[in-house]
């Protein structure tokens, strides 16, 4: 179960890094359309990574609890 928690933290860390990088590109580099587009892509990718992590965490937690009989 601790490995599952470490995995969700890794997903959260990666998602936060992607979103923060994307926001930085969008907020501070408005002059370049290409970089703003990359920024929005990174924000969306961060959201997808975060959602994937939460779904995998919940799925594995349910499976572990059912195997233990909780």
Please, could you describe this protein's structure?
With 70 residues, the chain is mainly α. 90% of the residues lie in helices and 0% in strands. It is built from 2 helices and no strands. Helix 1 runs antiparallel to helix 2. The longest helix has 36 residues. It starts with a helix and ends with a helix.
Short summary:
This protein has 70 residues and is mainly alpha-helical. It has helices at 2-28, 33-68. Helix 1 runs antiparallel to helix 2.
Question: Any chance you could write out the topology, listing elements then pairs?
Answer:
Blueprint: H1 2-28, H2 33-68
Number of helix segments?
A: 2
Beta-strand proportion: under 5%
- Can you tell me the overall shape? rod-shaped
Radius of gyration: 16 Å
Give the termini separation: 13 Å
Q: Structural class, from helix and strand content?
A: mainly alpha
Mean pLDDT: 92
DSSP helix fraction: over 70%
Order of helices and strands: HH
Total beta strands: 0
Low-confidence stretches: none
**Major sheet, described briefly?**
none
Question: What labels describe this entry?
Answer:
single chain; 70 residues; 2 helices; 90% helix; rod-shaped
């Amino acid at each position: 179960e601790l490995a599952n928690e470490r995995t969700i933290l890794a997903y959260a860390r990666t998602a936060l890094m992607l979103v923060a990088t994307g926001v930085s590109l969008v907020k501070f580099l408005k002059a370049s359309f290409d970089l703003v587009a990359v920024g929005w892509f990174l924000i969306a990718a961060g959201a997808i990574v975060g959602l994937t992590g939460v779904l995998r965490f919940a799925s594995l937690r349910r499976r572990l609890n059912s195997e233990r009989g909780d």
